[in-house]
Amino acid sequence: MLKKNLSEKQIVYLIKGIVFFWLLTKIWSYKTWITERSYPVIPPVEMLEGVPNFLHQFLFGFSIVCLLTILSFKINRWLVISLFFSEIISCAMDTVRWQPWEYMYLCFLLVIIINFYKPKNIVLIAHLFLVSIYLFSGLHKFSRDFLNTVWLNMFLVNFLGLSIDFIVQYKLFFLGLLIPTIEVLLALLLLFSKYKKMVSYLLIVMHLCILIFIGPIGLQYNSVVWPWNLAMIFILLIVYLNPIKFSYKTVFANSYWLILWFIMPVLSLFGSWYQYFSFNLYSGKGDQMYICLLDNKKEFKPYFESSNSTFCKGKPTVNLQNWALKEIKSAPIPEAEIYGKIAVYLKRKYGNNTIKIILYNPRTRIRKEL
Prior knowledge:
single chain, mainly alpha, four-stranded antiparallel β-sheet, globular
């Protein structure tokens, strides 16, 4: 990026903004990136279980230094490459680090690395990535899981304080389908409409509503995604600062991104691709893991559920998601394979006789002991 034309300045702002919000998120969720915690460190393959603890800490520190340097000084491509590989190695050592915001930032980073001297390419590819994010985030919400868990319980009851009788009387339950409909519609308009900047403003309003809903003045829930929503607002402002110049040649040359962002996420709708790589966000889908402690463990005390008789017959209970959000400020990865590995780890550490692990599906109400 040698000449400071408008597109190149746009990319500089984009990189600096991403780095700033990424830095905030990593600092806030620092326990996700180190091993000094109670929440299990679960690598994707067994051979990485013996990685020394100091390497986790070193990679976290190295990433922080890279982010601060990119933010403070002129952008250097090799430093961006170093940051990318540092994050990949760190994520390879613990599955919980593959958060949707981490995946998004890594994708943006790789797009920037590949097209470092082609800023117009970066803007166009970033535009397509944003379309994918909103499209599949909306599609995943077309389910009764979303209506029950997010729309009914979180929004209507907990956030607005409405009673079930009021909700039934005024038939508000299925009104929740407007949310995914609007999100998918905005994604399609972002792709096909000539008024992309206007659509981006509507998406910014959506993110502001999300921040009101789950932020400090709302439910105060999942605080690690607060800066992510601010990052999305910033990215929308920068990417659509100027009209998008569509080029079939550029799209064809970068068709591998289309496979990753538009083909693979389709498989997630059928359970054949990672949910967080498909931006399955706040859909209410998936199982919840409950840990029943037959022998009271002191390290679990801060994460006990206030009401635990349903799953563990009066024994102390820990909900894995609440534990993760409270201790490491990151949600568990909602994949059956990873839940299974966590169950194996906990039983190996605490013993089969002192711990019982149950997977519960809120929609089907089916319980399965691991």
